[in-house]
Design goal:
heterodimer, A: mainly alpha, two-stranded antiparallel ribbon, about 70% helix, B: mainly alpha
């Protein structure tokens, strides 16, 4: 069983090689190779879930080889409860995205090769327990993403791709400085690049001098790391790359971006920034909570103002990821449980929204709720597209946090977790939920109710393929809304360990 | 005595081979009857001899370090490794010149002669152990460079480049010589080690004069590796010179100058003194300015040749940071950077040169839609650009990682932040070029036929180290780590 992480990590790369070796003209073979690869990965991740021991916070399925011995850099993989969920989410979403990308006809070979490469690098980020390896995956992930947005994106794709790339690179270069500083702070020893070995507040008493001023080591490098991760989440005020990237990216890439890539940011907080710099994290928890709150409210208001339905969902992601940051800020058991659950639930519900918008876009070739000339983009879709409307309702209500669907539980847990520490912030954040309901329902009303727009007359309802790939997400959203314990059990031990660690500071 | 002389000469075989090569090339060129005949054989001969030179260099790498010619020249692993990189860079540039239309066919073997001459100067500079040898190295290197930059004889810009280069070069060499003579006046020797031993005893006016003299001397080297504020000549010279020459200039003379800068810093300033602090301070400021000026100026360049030239200024600025720490780890970082940089730069110029031959221009436009015209070359070029920007999994990342790591070890966080921001700036212009190649649709013909299989093979062969050194870099790190400087 120990090699299973290796398999999950490298299988997409094997698939990628398979895609590259397939002749360009055989597009269906390329799609099938990708589909087979992603389905095996999905099956392996389910197997991983079944074999996963929920009683311990220790890293499981650990793989460790020396890579660069001189620097004590290891090829070091392992997962705990938090990454278990992310692994499953990643495997599931790539499987679904492969199916949804069936309609891509431009450079099919390159597209699927890059998609598989992206999947591997995302797994790499979640599995890496060695800082150097983590950083390499974190950066390499930008390359397929850059090309996927830039080649298959919409009209303004170049700007969006470059902005995405530069923004993330800017954050991660500061993270690199932090990683190297940690390497020297631990004395270049055997564990200097081991993420786990740094955890637990080992640098509380260290100081650094920058431009002649003395600072606490923890605080400086916490903020360096914060920059790297906050840009990825994205937390206000670093969110400006997100709407561009989402609107321009092709559907599948939007799904991946919102579904898993944003989670890499919050995962970075959970695994790296908080446990390694606990004191700084606790000291700045109010700032983090306020930034999270601004993301919630600001993202929601921005979403309300959008006429482009994809941009609306993109801003709603900012808002929902703000909830995750809120949940993390208080460092209570419920809060962190809620945050991790929200990471998963946001992954499924936003993926649904983006996929649904993609399905509609394939029929209408625009995404305007209200066109720039003031006329309605859609209208009365509910009468024409019953299946589509049903799925849309499920996705939308999951997204706005209707009780009984998945979003509700995670948001409720987050509020429970932070209420005692940040009462005012909680109360304001609940308003964010209300605004969320408002913009989603308003969008729904404008698109699905009212008079049937003549332009939408000839739209076809969802076909079998589309129904098939929406189904797993619908199941996730409904089942985990009523019965979240399969998810909560998996992460319980790991979250408990983290909260315990943070409680000492 | 003769025995001893021969024994010493054994270490000097690579240089001797190069001198012999240069002279035989001169003879061979004069024997060519037809002006426009193909110089393939001559080039092949030069490459073969340079490969033999490489073998001897690798042999020297394992030897214990020593001074030869009455301590005028040092043969140590550091200089030998730098020489290996320079020889490889020269071979690459010669290959490039052979396939490039920028070098007229009747000048191909002349390019070879000049390049080997510059290489000899560079080798001399890299192992110089006294001021005279160092000056000799700089001059040998420079005088031939002036000729090389004006190789496009019927173009005014090329002539202008040569002229500018010569004027600036002559001036800065003069200033450096002025500084050297003051150093000799105060310290009473031209041997590095003897000069260094007298430094700690200095005080008062003598110390002040030595400080100024060092700065004057620094102008000479700073000019060669185009450090801020002595980089003014670079844009025009790089613009005017043919592309293979520009590629050559961004590798060999820079590494040679860098090598001598490293040696001087290590010998004179590795013990702490008042001078050390000011030298390190100077280096940090110069490095920050060089990086920023190089990278910021590169943003606006439409000519890819110019862009690469400016980015090379940025890279040298980053490499200088390895000097700042004044220890073996810093040298290791510089050497690794040098190796990675050599391969990346060669490929970037190689592809630019090929495209420029096909379209008669080296602006961003000729790169438009390269992915559709020639996917392999576009992917390699993109890889090299990302590597130059310091993205994993390419060697440029490891090189950058090492530089960052040496400065952070010394807790120089301020300059680390400056370097980090510079790295983002550089990513911007590299990504812009990558974007042009890959996102933009091609206009004009749909396929590029200009890349001959031989050229493609060379480019792919050069790309292998760029990728491999980004993943399995331990061997080369150990090699660079062993290449220490021999002081006494």
């Amino acid at each position: 069983m120990n090699g299973i992480l290796n398999w999950i990590l490298w299988l997409p790369i094997i698939g990628m090689v398979g895609v590259i070796l397939t002749p360009k003209a055989k597009e269906n073979v390329i799609r099938l190779v990708t589909l087979v690869t992603t389905s095996i990965t999905l099956l392996l991740s389910i197997l991983l879930y079944l074999k996963f021991d929920t009683s311990t916070a220790e890293m499981q399925f650990v793989v460790k080889f020396p890579w660069i011995e001189q620097f004590h850099i290891n090829y070091f993989l392992g997962i705990d409860g938090i990454t278990m969920l992310m692994t499953f989410l990643n495997a599931l979403l790539f499987f679904i995205c492969t199916l949804s990308s069936w309609t891509i006809h431009k450079n099919v070979k390159a597209y699927f090769a890059l998609l598989l490469m992206l999947q591997s690098t995302v797994f790499g980020v979640f599995f890496s327990l060695d800082f150097f390896l983590f950083y390499v995956y974190w950066e390499v992930m930008l390359l397929p993403m850059f090309f996927l947005i830039g080649i298959w994106g919409g009209e303004n794709r170049e700007y969006a791709a470059i902005k995405f790339f530069l923004y993330t690179f800017f954050g991660s270069i500061f993270m690199l400085v932090g990683i190297i500083a940690l390497y020297y702070a631990t004395g270049k020893g055997v564990d200097s690049f081991n993420i786990l070995a740094h955890q637990g507040g080992k640098f509380v008493n260290e100081t650094v001098t920058i431009f002649g001023h003395q600072f606490s080591f923890e605080h400086i490098f916490f903020w360096f790391m914060f920059l790297g991760f906050a840009i990825k989440v994205p937390v206000f005020p670093f969110h400006t790359w997100l709407p561009h990237a989402h609107v321009q990216a092709p559907t599948a890439v939007s799904v991946i971006l919102a579904g898993v890539l944003l989670k890499m940011g919050t995962y970075g907080f959970l695994r790296i920034a908080f446990p390694i710099f606990p004191k700084a994290a606790v000291d700045s928890s109010t700032i983090i909570a306020i930034l999270g709150l601004i993301s919630v409210i600001y993202g929601a208001f921005c979403a309300m103002a959008q006429d482009d339905v994809k941009k609306l969902v993109a801003y709603s992601s900012v808002s929902h990821m703000g909830f995750v940051m809120l949940g993390l800020s208080a460092m209570t058991t419920q809060g962190v449980n809620g945050a991790v659950l929200q990471m998963f639930n946001h992954g499924t519900s936003t993926a649904m929204m983006f996929l649904l918008i993609g399905i509609l876009y394939e029929r209408s070739h625009h995404r305007w709720i209200v066109k720039p000339d003031g006329s309605k983009g859609y209208g009365g879709l509910s009468t024409k597209l019953p299946k589509y409307t049903t799925v849309f309702i499920i996705g939308m209500f999951a997204s706005l946090g209707l009780p009984g669907l998945s979003g509700f539980i995670s948001e409720a847990l987050i509020f429970l977790g932070i209420y005692q520490k940040f009462t005012t912030i909680t109360i304001i954040a609940v308003v964010g939920l209300l605004i969320g309901a408002a913009y989603l329902l308003w969008m729904f009303k404008r698109m699905f109710f009212g008079e049937v727009n003549p332009e939408t007359e000839d739209y076809e309802d969802m076909n079998a393929r589309e129904v098939f790939y929406m189904l797993p997400l619908c199941i996730c959203v409904i089942v985990f809304g009523i019965f979240p314990s399969p998810l909560l059990n998996v992460m319980k031990a790991s979250v408990g360990h983290l909260v315990e660690l943070m409680a000492k500071f | 005595m003769i025995q001893q002389l021969f024994g010493f000469l054994g270490y000097y075989i690579p240089e001797i081979i190069c001198v012999v090569l240069m002279t035989t090339l001169l003879v061979a060129e004069s024997a060519v009857k037809d002006e426009n005949a193909n110089r393939g054989k001559i080039i092949g001969y030069a490459l073969a001899v340079l490969s033999i030179c490489l073998i001897f260099l690798f042999q020297n790498l394992g030897e214990a370090p020593l001074h030869i010619f009455h301590k005028a020249v040092t043969i140590d692993p550091f200089s030998t490794l730098i020489k290996i990189i320079m020889v490889l860079g020269t071979m690459g540039a010669i290959l490039l010149s052979y396939s490039s239309k920028d070098i007229y066919s009747n000048l191909k073997s002349e390019f070879c002669i000049m390049a080997v001459g510059v290489l000899i100067g560079g080798m001399l500079l890299a192992s110089a152990n006294n001021m005279l040898t160092l000056y000799l190295g700089i001059e040998t290197l420079s005088i031939l460079s002036y000729v090389m930059s004006s190789f496009k004889r019927d173009e005014a810009t090329s002539t202008e480049a040569g002229m500018k280069y010569a004027l600036y070069g002559g001036l800065s060499a003069g200033v450096a010589l002025y500084g050297i003579s003051h150093l000799y006046g105060i310290l009473g020797s031209i041997q590095f080690a003897e000069m260094a031993s007298k430094l700690p005893g200095l005080e008062g006016a003598n110390l002040a004069i030595v400080m100024v003299a060092f700065i004057l001397f620094f102008v000479g080297i700073g000019y060669k590796i185009s450090l801020f504020p002595f980089h003014m000549w670079t844009p025009d010279v790089y613009q005017g010179s043919p592309i293979p020459v520009t590629a050559f200039f961004s590798i060999v003379p820079k590494l040679a100058g860098l090598a001598s800068l490293v040696r001087i810093s290590m010998i004179f300033f590795s013990q702490s003194s008042v001078l050390t602090i000011s030298w390190v301070g100077l280096m940090i400021v110069i490095s920050a300015m060089t990086m920023s000026v190089g990278n910021i100026t590169a943003i606006g360049q439409n000519s890819v040749k110019r862009l690469l030239a400016f980015s090379s200024i940025g890279h040298v600025g980053l490499m200088i940071l390895g000097v700042v720490v004044l220890n073996d780890v810093g040298i290791r970082a510089i050497l690794f950077y040098g190796i990675a940089y050599m391969f990346m730069t060669l490929i970037a110029f190689y592809i630019t040169s090929q495209l420029s031959d096909m379209y008669g221009s080296d602006s961003h436009e000729v790169f438009k839609g390269l992915i559709y015209k020639h996917p392999l070359m576009a992917i390699i070029m993109a890889g090299v650009l990302f590597s130059l920007a310091g993205m994993p999994p390419f060697s440029g990342f490891v090189a950058k990682f090492n530089i960052f790591s040496v400065i952070i070890e010394k807790k120089l966080y301020g300059i680390a932040i400056v370097a980090a921001i510079n790295s983002v700036i550089s990513l911007y212009y590299y990504v812009k070029l990558a974007k042009t190649m890959i996102f933009n649709e091609a206009d004009g013909e749909s396929k590029v036929t200009g890349f001959t299989p031989a050229n493609q093979a060379v480019i792919v062969a050069l790309f292998i180290p760029v990728l491999m050194l980004g993943i399995f870099w331990e061997k080369i790190m150990i090699l660079s780590g062993n290449a220490t400087i021999f002081i006494n």
